[in-house]
Every structure is written in structure tokens, then in C-alpha cells.
Amino acid sequence: GKITAFDIVNREIKWQFGTGNSDWILVDSYGNLFFTAISGSVSKNNTLFSTDPAGKIRWQRKLTDDSYTPRPTMDKNGNLFFATFATDSVFSLDYSGKLRWAAKLPSPGAVTTPLVSDADGKVYVIIEKYEAFDVAVYSGNGSLLSVLADLPSYSGQSPAISFNRLIIPSGKGESIFCMK
User: DSSP states of 9-39 as a string?
Assistant: First the structure.
């Protein structure tokens, strides 16, 4: 697979990028794309890319070897936040791809769901553990603000922010957690 941009009016391919797979794509309000290449000719051992709307590379940043990167989030200032398995850390890059900060996760586990950011710039990271999960809340500058520990069930689903609350559906469909 490759990333392909289509012109839906003229029904034609505008551009294509690479031959590898990407697990996620984030698009900002300017049409810039952010994604990882995790296999194939452009994988480069898991590299985070940003392209402009025409498919031209704006920047690229090599991540740690063998690190899986779940879907990131972007705050209202264009800062990107993501976590990796290999380092048990959460990171923030500025809009030009430069590292702003890195912080260790407060507990061991896997980050398998998308990160989310609220209007105040707080970043929520769900850390999966065996039959439970933690929610770590970071400030936009990387300070750990709080940890909600050992919530029963798997998360496994995409969290959402609504009415100043974090909503987390359980992976088994048995519960919905709502946190203020």
C-alpha cells in the first residue's frame, strides 16, 4: 500500500507517496499530512513524515527502531503528541517536526489507542495493562498532571473529548468510562 491523494472532482490521482504501509494519517487544517511508514520502501525503521497537500515532504523524523506509534493527536497550536512501545514514552514535536519534550509513561503497559488533546492543551494517554488500564494526563509542556490507575477492563477503542470530559469505551463493549 501507498498513500494516495485523489482529486474527487476530476476523478484522478493527484500524487502518491511510497510503497509501504502506514497505520494512521493525521491531516491538519491546512491539508498537511502526518503519518508513519512502518514497512516497505520508505519505512526507514519507522519514520514519522509530514507532507504538504501536494505530497512534498515538509519534514521527517526517525523514531526509535522497532517502535510502534499509535495514532497521535495535535493540539490547537499544531504541536504533535505521540507515544511509542519501544521506549514506553510520550513525545511532543512542534509543527516543524522538532522535538519539544519526551516523558516516560508513569506505568508499564502498552499504548494502543489514539492519544487525545483537549482545548486546554492537556494530552490524555491510555496505557493498557492486563485486564485494566491507566489514564495519564500530561500538560502541553510535558508535565505529568495526574494518573487514573487500574480502571477495570480493556480500553481498546478510540477515546473522545466532549463537554470537558474524556470518554473511553471499553474494548469489549461492556463499559463506557466518562472522566472529568
Answer: TTTEEEEEE-SS--S-EEE-TTS-EEEEE-S
Amino acid at 162: S
Give Cβ neighbours of residue 8 (< 8 Å, ≥ 6 apart): none
pLDDT digits (tens, 9 = 90+) for 143-178: 999 998 777 766 667 888 988 888 888 766 677 888
Percent of the chain with pLDDT over 70: 83
Cα separation, 32 vs 5, whole angstroms: 12
Residue 80 neighbours by CB under 8 Å, 6+ apart: 26, 34, 72, 73, 74, 92, 93, 94, 95
Instruction: Report d(CA 177, CA 157) in Å as an integer.
Output: 11
- This prediction has a pTM of 0.83
Q: What nine digits make up the cell of 108? A: 508499564
Grid cell for residue 98: 522538532
- H/E element, 4: strand 3-7
Name the nearest CA neighbour of 140 among 162, 119, 126, 157: 119
